[in-house]
Amino acid sequence: MQVIRKVFEEAIKQKIRDEEWAIFSSKLIREEFRKKHTLLSVGKIEQYLSFVETGIIRYFIPKIENDLTFNFVFENNFTSGYDSFITRNPSTYQIETLTPTVLWRISFTDLQTIYADTEVGNAIGRKASEELYLKKVRRELSFMNERAEERYLNLFTEQPHLLRHIPLKYIASYIGVTPQALSRIRKRIT
């Protein structure tokens, strides 16, 4: 729990008072998930804002032939079907673990209580929403401004030690190419 506190303090760039941490941390739930566990299904409402202690998570739109992967989340980052979480509307995509994963989670209801009762809750909530928003914008801009090879290299630069845990078909989908095109990209850059 102290590691999570330290990560949050670094993220919000302020020391969290012990009283506020006691309130906030009392609402956190630590959960462990096996590989390929569905965290959010299409048609379900996201109940949690989560922080990834360890693991890799994939966001995708299920399709009959090939799923469309549009996001990966790595350790020390926030994860949520955030649009569903804040609107309380059903999700149009799925979220699953790609590796065994440990999450620290707070429910929608508990987060509203934390927002009302603490300053730190607002700071952490703001940081989480900003991080999720900026990641989304970077992804959209990447598709408008970069070639698939650049998107692959950016993903490889972001978390090279974790990339080996992601099946190539998901990486290909994420950068917007076929698995065969990804093979050609990988050959060119090695």
UniProtKB/TrEMBL annotation:
SUPFAM superfamilies: cAMP-binding domain-like
Keywords of this entry: Kinase, Transferase
TM region positions: none
Cyclic nucleotide-binding domain ranges (all copies): 31-116
Source organism, top-level taxon: Bacteria
Gene3D superfamilies: Jelly Rolls
Protein's recorded name: cAMP-binding domain of CRP or a regulatory subunit of cAMP-dependent protein kinases
Species: Robiginitalea myxolifaciens
